[in-house]
Amino acid sequence: MENQVSVFIMDVSNSSKEDIGNELSDYLKELQISIAYWTQYITTTKVAHRAGDELVVVSNGFASTYILAFYLSRIWKYTDHPPYFGLSFGNIEGNLNNINIETWIHPLMRQARLANDFLKNQQNRMQFHFELAPRKDASGFEVYSREFATLLNTSLSLKQEQINEQTEIQSLVCSLYLMLGQQNKVSEYLGRTKSTISSHMKNGKADVILDTFYNIVDVLNSLEMGPVNDQTEELQLNIRQNINNRLQVYLPKER
Q1: Phi first, then psi: what are they for 109, rounded to 5°?
Q2: Half-sphere exposure of residue 3: CA atoms within 13 angstroms, side-chain side
Q3: How confident is the model at residue 147, as a pLDDT?
Q4: Residue 49 forms beta bridges with which residues?
Q5: For residue 140, what pLDDT is reported?
Q6: Can you give the pLDDT at residue 137?
Q7: Looking at the predicted structure, is the pLDDT value of residue 51 above 90?
Q8: What pLDDT score was predicted for residue 59?
């Protein structure tokens, strides 16, 4: 029986340029635990912390790891050492529960590694990149997997330009709006006027960035064989609730 899963391999930029290797490693261990809480009871997820500054995640659902990656990117603590995510998705034989992620060899892992290496070799590095490969017995979306990857990566490239143009406060407001969902709650949390928050949202193109994220999630959901919108909405709701319970830790007012 085939199951639909997604994969990301995450690395950290400039992790060897400063003496923060142990600190980063401890931070990734914390995020590994967070991912387990975020996905618990919603979607089967395997997480491995490798080689000091690498996280590998495999999860049921085509959109799951992209959702996890995006939320991780918005709460990331070390702004001088941003993470980047090589992603892939497709079908596997058997149950994800039975897979040992430490030893799992599969084309999806290879594609995620290729995507990660693509980002690693970029001079102006994006945060996200998909690699998909057609199978010889391809059916459904896999027949056009390369074309889908091109479309996804084009959207991600445009979104990255907008993210790179955000100031620190615009980025924080965007992340808070993702978590809190209302400008007045962001205003209350930061102690800024609603008009100030609205201005940061507009000038930082927060709505465009978040709409692109939601649209990519919708596209990934549409490629699955059955309805999965409820699962991805539940996953995002659980992530936001967990983050909001420790908002000052994840998104402090002064970073």
Answers
A1: -65, -40
A2: 17
A3: 87
A4: 55
A5: 64
A6: 64
A7: no
A8: 96
C-alpha–C-alpha distance, residues 62 and 40, integer Å = 17
Instruction: Tell me which residue range forms the domain holding 13.
Output: 2-153
Of the CA atoms within 13 Å of residue 102, those in its CB half-sphere come to 3
Sheet with 128-130, side-by-side order of all strands: 45-50, 54-60, 2-12, 83-93, 128-130
Domain count, the chain: 1
- Cα separation of 212 and 205, whole Å? 11
Distance of CA 40 to the CA centre of its chain: 17
Residue 214, domain member (yes or no): no
Per cent of the chain over pLDDT 90 is: 71
C-alpha to C-alpha distance for 160 and 165, rounded to whole angstroms: 9
E strands, 121-190, are 128-130
Residue 203 lies in a domain: no
The 10 Å Cβ neighbour count of residue 113 is 16
Strand partners, 85: 10, 128
Q: Are strands 83-93 and 128-130 parallel, antiparallel or unpaired?
A: parallel
**In the structure, how many helices (H) and strands (E) does the chain have?**
10, 5
| Domain assignment present for 161 | no
Assess whether pLDDT exceeds 90 at residue 52. Answer: no
Gap between the Cα atoms of 101 and 177, Å rounded? 34
How many C-beta neighbours within 10 Å does residue 151 have? 14
Residue 75 included in any domain: yes
pLDDT above 90 (res 225) = no
Quote the mean pLDDT of the chain.
91
Asked whether residue 86 carries a pLDDT value surpassing 70, the answer given is yes
Query: Domain holding 114: CATH number?
Result: 3.30.70.270
